[in-house]
Amino acid sequence: MDKIIFAGLEINKISIMKLLFNKSMLVGYAFLALACVGIFDVFDVRYFSVAANAHASGLDPTNPALKEAMRLAVFGDVGEVNRNIPWTLFIVNYMYMIYTGSGVIFLVALAELMNFNLVARASAGFMVAGISMVFAGLFTIATDLNMLNMLWMLITPNMNAGMWLMLPLYCIYIPFVLFEIYLVLTNKREWAKRLALPILVLSIGVDIIEYYIQAKLFSMNTARHLWTEFPALMFYFIISAFVSSLGVMGINSFLVHKTKKEYNELMDLIRRAMLFFVSVLGLYEIIGYMSVDKDWSFLILFGPFKTLYFGGYIFLTLALPFLLIVKPGKPIFTLLASISVFVGGFAGRYLFVYGGNANPMSNRFGMGYEKYDFYAVSKLFNYIAPHMGEILIVVGSFGVCILIYKLFDGLFSIGELRNHH
């Protein structure tokens, strides 16, 4: 394919039609179309609820609670999460995408520093996959904040708000990663290796600061047992993210490298790394459930979430992958393990988020269980299934991953191995 050289970067000379309307891009558009339907549905519920703006107004137009409900319907809590409002599927996907995407970037940067030459040569594709997941996470949370909330936050900035705390980090992190991709694509190995260490630190920084901000939004309140009592919770996020990240790398390797001679060696590297992190995560889970609040443990292990926990998380994230990769074998087993941990990792995030909502009550003031406005009546098990609009937006966010990855691939052929010099 003919190339255009710009700033040392070889850009494929490709027509707009081939770039924007190939089969993969059309799949991405289809996912985004689902997200648009979901956004419309969520906006309809949020802004055009008949019960809030017509029926309730007619019954009691001067009711202060009604006025507050209308204010919340339009502006929310300036887009912030608090302990009175449960986490949703948006938060599940945001946390999953951000942690997994930054985990991929971290592992690739680590491989660069540790002189895993094969991973370094394939790093462009892996890093683009990671950054595309970060953007998908940001897309999800942006739809959660919605346009009016984001406009309101920009007009009346609160520097202690989560968005303003994360914005500087992403404004530094994303350009660093994009510059690393540029160095890889222009075959500047020494500079790419030098930049790998800052990216390594920033990738972990994203996880730590994200953890700190989410904890700050909830003021580390005892009402959510998971957040305050699960031992070394930050390490759970990071370890589980590495497992999911290796799943992404395994799937990417199959899709991009399966017909190439490096495929078997690359999949074996991923297999060994996955075996290590799956084992560490399994040990962490055992310690965690022996240490965390017993009410929450019983809720997850023996309550309404038990099927999802044992079937969707333990089996898919720990048991099945371990059996598939414990011994060297064909790359197909690593691929199956990769798909398994990718799905199981999302189930784990879902359990963490909705499990935290399900048992959010405490007696910290000595006045009995606290009541939450969202639920109206305190119950032993609080759970509301995700709204269809949320589901469509989360599924649609995969379109962001596909579109970003395929745009990079169409322009720069990121799937090729690069011999740096």
Describe the SSE topology.
Layout: E1 3-6, E2 9-12, H1 16-20, H2 23-47, H3 50-59, H4 64-75, H5 89-113, H6 117-121, H7 123-155, H8 162-185, H9 189-217, H10 225-229, H11 233-257, H12 263-291, H13 294-302, H14 306-325, H15 331-358, H16 388-412
Antiparallel strand pairs: 1-2
Low-confidence sequence ranges: 77-83, 371-376
Round the Cα radius of gyration to an integer and report it. Answer: 23 Å
Order of strands across the widest beta sheet?
Answer: 1-2
- How would a textbook summarize the main sheet? 2 strands, antiparallel
- Structural class of the secondary structure composition? mainly alpha
Shape category: globular
What is the percentage of strand-forming residues?
under 5%
pLDDT averaged over residues? 81
Calculate the terminal CA-CA distance, rounded to whole Å: 23 Å
Order of SSEs: EEHHHHHHHHHHHHHHHH
Work out the helicity level: over 70%
Tally of structural domains: 2
Count of helical segments?
16
What labels describe this entry?
single chain; 421 residues; mainly alpha; 2 domains; 2% strand
Question: What does this entry look like structurally?
Answer:
This protein has 421 residues and is mostly helical. The chain folds into two domains: 222 residues, no CATH class; 164 residues, no CATH class. The chain is built from 16 helices and two strands. A two-stranded antiparallel ribbon has the order 1-2. A hairpin with a 2-residue loop joins strand 1 and strand 2. Helix 12 packs antiparallel against helix 14. The chain starts with a strand and ends in a 9-residue tail after the last helix.
